[in-house]
């Protein structure tokens, strides 16, 4: 018995296929061949099955293409440097240690100003994991010691007159808060001992050309101890960044020129703070900052042509600088 074609589903099915008008009419009306009489609508079941299979193939194809696009976007090889747009990694013990290692190398000019930093070379030479290394470079970028660009990768911040003015201006505005530190008896005793050591080193400054590093280390202990007494971790972090950048500038110009920087007599600062003479302590900080800015700008003007031209570092630094090649 022939199936009826007037169920309303066949025309809708045919509308989805690019058949000719003659074929659509043949499906809707019975045809006689003489001995065999049948209706084209008997083919409705094969057509519907063909359509269902086609939809399944199309869905699987779309799923495969979407999976391929996701794999291409998320499973590609990580580049040798991290661009500024990449998300920062959370700080871990390894990343904090890596930050200290690289910070010391930059401040001491083992990694000289303007040097390009390869993650592969840094990880190998400093024995740092790639994940901790990227987190450390991010932290140093926030401190102003390195910079990054999509094309050039990581780079140690170059020495420039704007940087000198920025560092000194920031210290001029932020360091006066040190005069508000509340010192207990233990802090006073510690500062007195540090001040005595700093004064002893200063007495041998002219006779010991290699004593600058020891004097700066003693000076740093003094001002860090005062900053710690503020109980302001964020402010202390800002000050540490500024002091690191200042020491880096001094190290660079001392390593590349004949003039040494004369440190400020920090024993006077300690005496003023422990005796409660805040105005005197403030005057000391301001005078020390003015002397530093003047010295840095004079050294920059003397060596500006060499700094801007990017000529090689002196022989004693050239070997250390090879870690960036």
In short:
It comes from Falsigemmobacter intermedius. With 325 residues, the protein is mainly alpha-helical. The protein has helices at residues 9-15, 21-28, 44-74, 93-107, 119-125, 130-143, 161-174, 185-203, 212-228, 233-256, 266-274, 278-309, 315-318; strands at 30-32, 37-39, 116-117, 146-149, 153-156.
Notes on the protein architecture:
With 325 residues, the chain is mainly alpha-helical. The protein has helices spanning 9-15, 21-28, 44-74, 93-107, 119-125, 130-143, 161-174, 185-203, 212-228, 233-256, 266-274, 278-309, 315-318, and strands spanning 30-32, 37-39, 116-117, 146-149, 153-156. Strand 1 (30-32) and strand 2 form a beta hairpin. Residues 92-159 form the HTH gntR-type domain.
Characteristic key phrases:
325 residues, mainly alpha, Arc Repressor Mutant, subunit A, Four Helix Bundle (Hemerythrin (Met), subunit A), three-stranded antiparallel β-sheet, 5 strands, globular
């Amino acid at each position: 018995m022939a199936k009826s074609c007037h169920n309303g589903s066949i025309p809708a099915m045919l509308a989805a296929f690019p058949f000719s008008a003659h074929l659509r009419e043949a499906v809707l009306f019975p045809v006689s061949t003489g001995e065999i009489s049948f209706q084209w609508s008997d083919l409705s079941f094969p057509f519907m099955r063909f359509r269902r299979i086609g939809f399944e193939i199309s869905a699987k194809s779309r799923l495969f293409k979407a999976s391929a696009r996701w794999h291409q976007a998320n499973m590609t090889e990580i580049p040798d440097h991290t661009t500024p747009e990449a998300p920062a990694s959370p700080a871990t013990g390894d990343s904090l240690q890596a930050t200290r290692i690289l910070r010391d190398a930059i401040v001491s000019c083992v990694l000289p100003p303007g040097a390009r930093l390869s993650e592969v070379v840094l990880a190998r030479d400093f024995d740092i994991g790639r994940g901790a290394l990227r987190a450390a470079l991010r932290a140093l970028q926030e401190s102003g010691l390195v910079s990054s660009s999509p094309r050039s990768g990581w780079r140690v911040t170059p020495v420039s007159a704007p940087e000198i003015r920025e560092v000194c201006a920031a210290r001029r505005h932020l360091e006066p808060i040190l005069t508000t530190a509340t010192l207990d008896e233990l802090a006073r005793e510690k500062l007195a001992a540090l001040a005595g050591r700093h004064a002893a080193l200063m007495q041998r400054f002219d006779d010991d050309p290699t004593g600058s590093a020891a004097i700066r280390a003693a000076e740093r202990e003094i001002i860090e101890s005062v900053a710690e007494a503020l109980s302001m971790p964020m402010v202390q972090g800002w000050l540490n960044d500024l002091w690191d950048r200042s020491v880096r500038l001094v190290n660079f110009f001392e390593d590349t020129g004949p003039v040494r920087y004369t440190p400020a007599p920090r024993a006077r600062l300690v005496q003023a703070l422990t005796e409660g003479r805040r105005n005197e302590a403030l005057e000391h900080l301001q005078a020390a900052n003015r002397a530093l800015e003047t010295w840095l700008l004079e050294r920059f003007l003397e060596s500006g042509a060499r700094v801007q031209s990017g000529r090689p570092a002196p022989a004693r630094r050239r070997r250390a600088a090879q870690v960036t090649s």
